[in-house]
Amino acid sequence: MDQRPDMAGRVCVITGATRGIGRATADGLARLGATVVLIARRREDGERASREIADSSPVPPTVVTADLASLASIREAAGELRRFYPHLHVLVNNAALITHRRQRTGDGLEMQFAVNHLAYFLLTSLLLDQLRAGAPSRIINVSSAAHSGAQLDFDDLQGERRYDGTRAYSQTKLANILFTYELARRLQGTGVTANCLHPGVIGTRLLSDYTGVPIAGRALARTFGASAEKGAETSIYLASSPDMEKVSGKYFEGQTGEALVAGVLR
Ligand SMILES: NC(=O)c1ccc[n+]([C@@H]2O[C@H](COP(=O)([O-])OP(=O)(O)OC[C@H]3O[C@@H](n4cnc5c(N)ncnc54)[C@H](OP(=O)(O)O)[C@@H]3O)[C@@H](O)[C@H]2O)c1
Description:
By secondary structure, the protein is an alpha/beta fold. 41% of the residues lie in helices and 13% in strands.
């Protein structure tokens, strides 16, 4: 008997879907029959990913462009999603980056804080009505084990006084988890769940940027981390498994993960 969840008719929105773990997550959900919407910074990158995914999926993914470093661009993308998809079933907030030198977005925000955390928060908030309309539905926030040991400095959330790229990254990944926990609490009883995860150590550009070790090609990437397909497994599981329908407010490392509050509420 085929044990794969059937995602036919389920609309799944994935950010950072042009490469890495997000691209593999989109591919996996499309193979399960989902209607996948790729959020891409550049249309041509989104179209390329869509074409590649379409080769192996029943429904070709559509592309919505958004620069997640821009609050206006996120609002515009959410507006487009609202027009075309009144019912949403899965939102995977996955896009992130690490910058070792402090950068500011056009809105004047620190880049990692904007893309890795605020974009998760804003896009989710703007799509909540569609997710409620599509219930049972699921929000999945891709965090990282790098949150462990991080502390939110509420007096300097954007590293204006002191900036260290790795530390800033860890803070945003901790913020992903705290956001998920509070979101799950506020969504109790709505049929919309919210969970977060660590995907593993995966050989992507982000890992290369994190470690400072250039990743030139798949072979080298594999030396430093597992494949993007492996990294997508937990997101796909949380998005599609019937076992997860009522689970909310948890942090996963692998599919059998448990809520790990240690390290988060220190
Ligand atoms: N790789 C790991 O070992 C690892 C470990 C723990 C957690 N994670 C988490 O896994 C998630 C995916 O990471 P990854 O390793 O797959 O990274 P990746 O291969 O570098 O992909 C990052 C994705 O985010 C997108 N993105 C970055 N900035 C954007 C912006 N301003 N607007 C729109 N899209 C933007 C990129 O789009 P462009 O193509 O346009 O740049 C790309 O699609 C992240 O949340 C990361 O924190 C990864």
